[in-house]
Amino acid sequence: MKKYIISLLSFVLLFSACDLDIQPQSDLTFNGFWESEEAARAAHVGIAARHRDYANTFFTMGEMRSDIWGGLTIEEPYNIELINNDISISKVYFSNWANFYGLIHNINDFLTNVPNVAFKNEDDKNHILAQAYGIRAQIYYTMLKAWGDVPISTEPLVGVDLEKLKKPRAPKEEVMKQVKEDIAKSLELFGSGNRLWQGKNIYWSKAATLALKGDVYLWSGKVLGGGNADFTEAKNALSSITGYELVPYDKLWGEDNEGNKEFIFAFDYQQDQAGNYYANFTGRIVDFNPLFDDRGVSAKDKSVLGDDVSVVAGGSNRYGPTDKILLMIDDINDNRRDTFIRLYSDDEGRYPFIPNEDAYKASVLKKFLGSIYDDGQRQNYNNVPLYRYADVVLMLAEAKNNLKEDPSAEINAVRRRAYEDKFEDYRFVNGDQASNRKAILDERLKEFIGEGKRWWDLVRAGDGIVFQELESLNASEAYKIYYSISQGMLANDDQLTQTAGYGN
Prior knowledge:
The chain is mainly alpha-helical. It has 18 helices and 6 strands. It has a two-stranded antiparallel sheet. A hairpin with a 5-residue loop joins β4 and β5 (378-379).
C-alpha cells in the first residue's frame, strides 16, 4: 500500500485540519489505510474539506468576467484585468488548471479503493461514493467550461513517476461524456432515496447531482450542440428535485439560516474560515462610518445592517458593482434591490440610483456580511451556496424555453417572492423564445449576484449574447471564452497544446 503514500498523505492532512462534522479519532497509518471503514470516512471528510477550498475559485470563474463587477470601490479594485477580459498567453489566470487535479486525484484514489472496503451499512458506503462521483463531475464540468479541452484522469496516482502524469487535452466532447458518466454513476449509487448525509446540505447529495445534471445538460444542449435531447434530460432532472422551496429573503442569508430549505448544496464555513472570501465585498469601519446609505442613514446606525451595534466591517470592498447592475435592480418594489448597500458622502437620501453622481462612493454586497460577535467585530461565518432551489427553478425555465415550452410558471415563482404583494404588477407573460430567454437571464442576474453564475449564464445562452452584454469582449475574440494556459505548463508537459486562438 506504500504506492499510495502521496495521495493518502493529502487525505490525512485535510482530515486533521477539517472542521466539518465528521471528526473520528484515529491512529490510522499508511499501511493498510484502505482496509477500514474508518479510513474511508476520514477520506470522505478530506474530499469535502478540499472541495470547499475551491469555493472562491468557483465564484471568480463564474462571475468575475461578467457585467456585474467593475464599478466604484472603497479601495483599489481587484482582479480588474480579469473583469476586463484581458486574457492572453502572457496574462494567464488559474494556472495549473486551478489545481483542480489535486482534488481529482484524491477522488480517483477514493473511488478506486472504497468499493473494496467493508462497511457496516452498505448504503452509507454507496452514499459517500455517490458524493465523490458527483463532486468529480462538478470539477470536470467547471474545467470544461473554463478551458474547453482538458486532460482526463480517472485512475489513482501510483508511485511518483511524473511522466505518467502527462496527458494530452481531451476534446471537450470527451470531457462532457466523462461528466455525464460520473453523474449517471452518482445517481445510480444514491438510489431512490433523497436523504442528506448527516441531514445537512454541506455534503453533496442526490439533489445536488440532479441540479448539476440539469446545469450540465443545458450547457451540452446549447454550447456543444446536443439540442432538444439534452434539454429534455435537463428538464427531467430538474423537475425531479423535491423537498426544497423558495424561502423569504430574510430567511435565506446569514448564519442563522444556513439550514434553510432553499440551499441544496453549500460550502460550510466556520467563524473566520471564509474571511478572505468575503473581505472584497465588504469594507473597513474607517471607510464605512463617514458614509450614508441611500436612505440618508449614517453607516454608524445599526439600521443599516440590522445589527445590535453600529456598522463594523473588516473587509476592503475591492469589488464594486457596475452602474448597469445597480440600475437593473433599482426597483423599490423588488426585494433584490437590497442585494447592495449603496454608500454616499452625504445624507440627502437617493432613489432612484443616478450613475456618475459625485456623492456616490461604493456599494457593499449584503448577502455575505457576516455577524457582529461579542468582541464587537464583524466575523464571517456564512455558508456559500453552490446550488439553491431558485437556481433549479430558473434552469427549469431555461430548459422549457429551449424546448419551446412556456416558462412563465417558473419565472413567476421567483418574481412572486421578489415582489410579494406587488407581484401582479410584474407577472410574466409567455412570449417568443428570445424574449423569454432575456427574461430568464435578467431574473438569474438579479437572483445570483455574488454566487458565481452570471458569466456561465451568458456563455450558455448562446447566439453571441455574451458579446452583446459585455463591453469588454467582442465576437472577434470568441476564443477568449476559454482560458489560455501558461507557458510553464506547456514547457513542463510536451503533450499539452495552447488553447485554440491564443497562438503559441
